[in-house]
Amino acid sequence: MLFDLRGRGRRRTVQIIYAGLALLIGFGLIGLGVGGGFGSGGILSGLTGEEGSGSASFAAQVQKYEKAIHKNPNDVHAWEQLTLAQLHEAGGETYVVDGKLTSKGKELYVQIAQSWNHYLALNPSGESIPLAKEMVTVFGEEGLNEPAEAVKVLQLIVAAEPTNSSYYRFLAEYAYKAHNTRIGDLASEKAVALAPASERKQLKTALAEVKKNAASSSSTSSSASSSASSSTSGAGTTGSSGAAAATGASSGSASGASSGSGTVTIGGKTYHLPSNVNKQVQEQLDAKKAAGSSGSSTSGTTK
Questions:
Q1: pLDDT per residue as tens digits for the range 84-102
Q2: 266 near 253, Cβ under 8 Å?
Q3: What are the φ/ψ torsions at residue 22 (nearest 5 degrees)?
Q4: Neighbour count for residue 198 (Cβ, 10 Å)
Q5: Fewest CB within 10 angstroms: 158, 181, 215, 269, which?
């Protein structure tokens, strides 16, 4: 028997066999990236095109494609790869803590959005749909929270995958949040139609709720703005009315003092005057009016 250690040379043979098995197992674990302190490196990472040095390698890729773009700003491939490298870099601990973006993470997301827009501005022959799907996260609520931009990205995705109910649902949700009811309704209808029959009713109800909440949020914002405007305009109207009332009171007093032939009204009481006295009073009132008109025109000119 092979493992009968009593035979001559058998003990040495078994030792060699076990040592060989140990080496095979060790190399196999290291090659698969298990243990050995190599992180995510190894054979599988090489096959998937990922580098084991993590965020440092993505930072190097960012620099690489930034240099390429500096040489040729119209390099579509370089813009695409730069956006992708920035997205991978954004997954590092510096940019995301407990699933939330840090301040540096938001800054990087802004850069990613700029790179993406540069990429699209060059009119690539076929937009990268996998990259577009990543950009939904950038423009989503957990990212930059720009639903209108998310709608643009999702329109590219559903155009490439016209039978995907999930992305039509995302398009409907973000369109409603962007207050684009027309696109929201069309996408909602398409999402429900493409969904499995057993899920259609629930999906339709959920999307209707999103639409209702978005509309409610919009009306609340509009009401707040209208109230602020009304308060401001109301204050202005009150001031104008008060000024008009004061002017009217002054005019009424002056006209009351000179109203009626041979009479004068003072303090609400009317007194009859002789014709010669009435003439003198009228002359005095006319002189005061002339002096007042002259003062008003002078002050207006000075201003």
A1: 999 998 887 778 888 788 8
A2: no
A3: -65, -40
A4: 7
A5: 269
Say if residue 151 is exposed, middle or buried (CB neighbours under 10 Å; 0-12, 13-18, 19+): buried
Contacts of 81 (CB under 8 A, 6+ apart): 61, 65
How would residue 58 be classed by pLDDT, with cut points 50, 70 and 90? confident
Give residue-wise pLDDT tens across range 229-242: 555 555 454 444 44
The residue written with tokens 């440092």 in the block is 56
* 147, 174 Cβ separation under 8 angstroms: yes
- Residue 98 CA, chain-centre distance (Å), reads 22
Backbone angles phi, psi at 178, to 5 degrees: -90, 5
Q: Estimate to the nearest angstrom the gap between the alpha carbon of 16 and the chain centroid.
A: 66
108 contacts: CB under 8 Å, gap ≥ 6: 86, 89, 90, 95
Residue recorded with tokens 């850069």: 111
Residue 35, number of CB atoms within 10 A of its CB: 9
Question: In the chain, what are the domain boundaries?
Answer: 10-46, 55-218, 262-291
Average pLDDT, integer, range 263-281: 51
